[in-house]
């Protein structure tokens, strides 16, 4: 089994050849730091709107090295954060407008793929959330009205499924009930991000790779090499890597997410698993899992694993801990039962996503300094980065649009606690979530474990 190699998605394609680094000082209208989905979508929409703008992307490794080339490929309309809190500040209509914008974003990404000839195994078949024990089933049933309340088409946006309706789509051990939403598509993330980088380059954006930035200041980004890019606007698009920039150590917490991919399943095994629709698949656990049926007939499944590394450190090339691999392999075997017991696991990897202190994303630009940023998507970044890119375009261009009026624009959150509190807190919270999941599985009752309630209160997570 391969551990790392950035991700399985690159093992199944190829690690791209790195573009040249920034050769020395440079000038631009917009300097984007970070070549993941956030940075590349922003570059794409800026250049489409104003071809005359000089747009430069600075990337430490290669475009798509971070979470954008490692994720579960859930292109979904999910958006983190407390809807009641958002509605209290901006009104209910603004929250529903955000939900609609996220649903449209899924189709926007698929539309750009079509227009730019990006083949990324995209398939819009929706998303299934399955309850794997009575406590999860009770939570899904009780949570449905609250979820629908903030969606434009309520009952059509999330459909409740019975045990048989779930089983007709996929055979999950102990599957009791579920939700289905049509607003989600599967993608192969490395193909999407590589295709997007090529499209951005075709538009005339300069992408410099092997160029780490250490400081972002009004009007300039300073590379580790000492070279400086001067620009009216400098945009920080680094999500889980944000703590690496001077002064940003406590802005967002780099939370680990890890995945495993099985060997391709044969037809007989697929017949046992079902899942012919290739919907995205998740469960109702507190430390939830996410999975996709890949275009080449594997199951790629992810979850939290070891949640956080001391001092906001990040992994090297996606190498993950054995403990994390064991947990994820356990989930594969438990979820799909005897059908998957003998199927080899061929690849494991991990990456970091960004979590703000209020567990809710933001996109912002300070017109005084020209510094902008977007991220903190808390694991729902594949589609949200596209909305962020279009919004950053409007903010840079000084346009007042429907996008710049959405309730996540300009939202500030307090900073994370200093170490060792961050480390202790994140280990404690995920330890409690996992213990709660175990207890709920063993107890077999409809009651949500109190440990999970304590964990959510400690972390400040509301979703
Ligand atoms: C394992 C995993 C699974 C996930 N699954 C899903 C999913 O299924 N669906 C979903 O919606 N979201 C998912 N996410 C989250 C989603 O992938 C991210 O939110 C999203 O890709 C963030 O994109 P980004 O461009 O903001 O950041 P990134 O893609 O992380 O890009 C940041 C870039 O900055 C570069 N960089 C770092 N430091 C510097 C520096 N100092 N100077 C210059 N460049 C630098 C990095 O090399 C990287 O390329 C997952 C994340 C992970 C880790």
Summary of the model, kept short:
With 463 residues, the chain is of the alpha/beta class.
Strand order of the largest sheet: 1-17-13-16-15-14-5-7-6
- What hetero molecules are in the model? flavin-adenine dinucleotide
What's the total number of strands?
A: 19
Number of helices: 13
List the helices and strands and how they pair.
Layout: E1 2-3, H1 8-11, E2 26-33, H2 37-49, E3 55-58, E4 74-76, H3 83-90, H4 92-116, E5 127-131, H5 134-149, H6 154-157, E6 159-161, H7 163-169, E7 177-181, E8 184-186, H8 189-202, E9 206-208, E10 213-217, E11 220-223, E12 228-236, E13 253-262, H9 267-273, E14 280-283, E15 290-293, E16 299-303, H10 322-336, E17 345-355, E18 362-365, E19 371-375, H11 381-396, H12 421-443, H13 450-459
Parallel strand pairs: 1-17, 2-3, 2-12, 3-9, 5-14, 12-19
Antiparallel strand pairs: 4-8, 5-7, 6-7, 10-11, 11-12, 13-16, 13-17, 14-15, 15-16, 18-19
The chain binds flavin-adenine dinucleotide (FAD).
Flavin-adenine dinucleotide (FAD) is lined by residues 33-39, 58-61, 65-68, 70-74, 76, 212-213, 237-241, 244, 257-259, 290, 302, 350-353, 375, 377, 379-383, 385.
